[in-house]
Specification:
This protein is an alpha/beta fold. It is built from 10 helices and 14 strands. The protein has helices at about 50-60, 80-90, 105-115, 130-135, 140-155, 175-185, 200-205, 210-220, 295-305, 325; strands at about 5, 15, 15-20, 65-70, 95-100, 120-125, 160-165, 185-190, 225, 235-240, 245-250, 260-265, 270, 280. A 12-stranded mixed beta sheet has the order 9-10-11-8-7-6-5-4-3-12-13-14. A two-stranded antiparallel ribbon has the order 1-2. Strand 13 (about 270) and strand 14 (about 280) form a beta hairpin. Helix 1 (about 50-60) packs across helix 9 (about 295-305). The chain binds S-adenosylmethionine (SAM). S-adenosylmethionine binds next to strand 4, strand 5, strand 7 and helix 10.
Length: about 325
């Protein structure tokens, strides 16, 4: 297979595909789907495993070697292992990851690992059971933490926890979360809450800059780690006595978009050049036959060249994204 490379007009190279397999989510996170998932009037069925396989083949031919399955909640798709297998077998894919809310993970971790997924991010916004329930709408912290243990037992290479950082909601838990990472061999990512089309009031009340975490880490002797070549936008910290690491995803920080190395495919087969862009570029008509591979590669290449240098979140513009579940967070 000839492997090319994919660049935009601003010198950024793309190696990482975030692939939404569904926009359906069963949790009701306050910052994302506080009233639960509602099927849009114009909903179409999500991509089938064969369509996903063709899409990933085209991205892999362009040098994208890391794929993350996301959503919505990917675990709501009963054919997830088949999807994972079809992605993992694409030549050029070297790493298959998943982001999940941990629902039923303890039962599923081994099947997902056996299907070729080697890295897992699990969302845990609070380590307090009542607060976890208030944020997500589910009394399932115990189940999710059992899923984290099951992921370890299943042999995932990398296990990361994602916590959305929210002023007045979970920021008082920063010391407890930092201690948790110090004593567990896993990484934790603090994600600044992002403004989307449907959460502007929540965002205004609860946004907290990642610098709040950085201050607490530095006070406790954590040190910034050098950026690995090809790494994404997370700022990584480690501590000589801590088992785990902490990353901060701060989309409102200066130059956040300069290291962007990712593209997104929504569950209905649209290429999104930015999480906060104006809408996706339809690829689904080119995903129906293997014979359209070259045309698909050309369409992706031409579209990527038009990627804008940065999001417009600072101007209060979150693009056409109603919430992250809609195109894959
Ligand atoms: N359902 C899966 C999960 O819960 O991890 C995957 C999809 S979810 C959209 C992916 C990640 O995006 C989760 O860690 C979630 O907390 C985060 N997220 C969703 N909306 C967000 C927002 N407005 N700001 C910051 N993070 C958000």
């Amino acid at each position: 297979m000839m492997v090319g490379s994919l660049h935009d007009n601003h010198g950024r190279r793309f190696e990482y595909l975030r692939l939404s397999v569904t926009d359906v989510c069963n949790f009701r996170c306050q910052y994302c789907l506080p009233n639960g998932y509602r099927k849009p009037a114009d909903a179409v069925p999500p991509l089938r495993p064969d369509e996903i396989g063709r899409a990933v083949s085209a991205f892999a031919a362009l040098g994208l070697w890391k794929v993350r399955l996301t959503g919505g909640e990917p675990g709501t798709r009963s054919d997830l292992p088949a999807i994972a297998r079809s992605v993992a077998r694409v030549p050029g894919v070297r790493r298959l990851a998943i982001t999940t809310n941990g629902w039923k993970l303890a039962e599923r971790a081994q099947a997902w690992r056996d299907a070729g997924i080697s890295a897992i991010n699990i969302s845990v916004d609070s380590l307090d059971p009542a607060r976890f329930a208030a944020i997500t709408g589910h009394r399932r912290l115990g189940e999710v933490l059992a899923g984290v243990s099951a992921a370890r037992a299943a042999g995932f290479d990398t296990i990361k926890l994602n916590a959305v950082l929210m002023r007045g909601v979970n920021d008082d838990e920063l010391p407890a979360m930092i201690n948790f990472v110090a004593t567990h061999d896993l990484s934790l990512r603090f994600i600044e809450v992002m403004r989307t089309g449907t959460n502007p009031e929540f965002f205004a009340r609860h946004h907290l800059p990642g610098s709040a975490v950085i201050d607490q880490l530095e006070q406790r002797g954590w040190q910034r780690l050098p950026r690995a070549p090809g790494a994404g936008p997370a700022i990584e910290y480690g501590h000589p006595l801590a088992k785990g690491r902490i990353g901060i995803i701060a989309p409102y920080a200066r130059d956040f978009c300069a290291s962007c190395n990712r593209l997104r495919l929504s569950a209905d087969g649209r290429l999104h050049l930015c999480l906060f862009g104006d809408g996706g570029i339809a690829l689904r008509p080119w995903l129906q036959r293997d014979a359209d591979h070259v045309a698909l590669v050309e369409r992706i290449t031409a579209a990527t060249f038009t990627k804008t240098p940065a999001h417009r979140l600072h101007a209060g513009n979150s693009g056409a994204t109603p919430h992250l579940a809609s195109i894959g967070g």
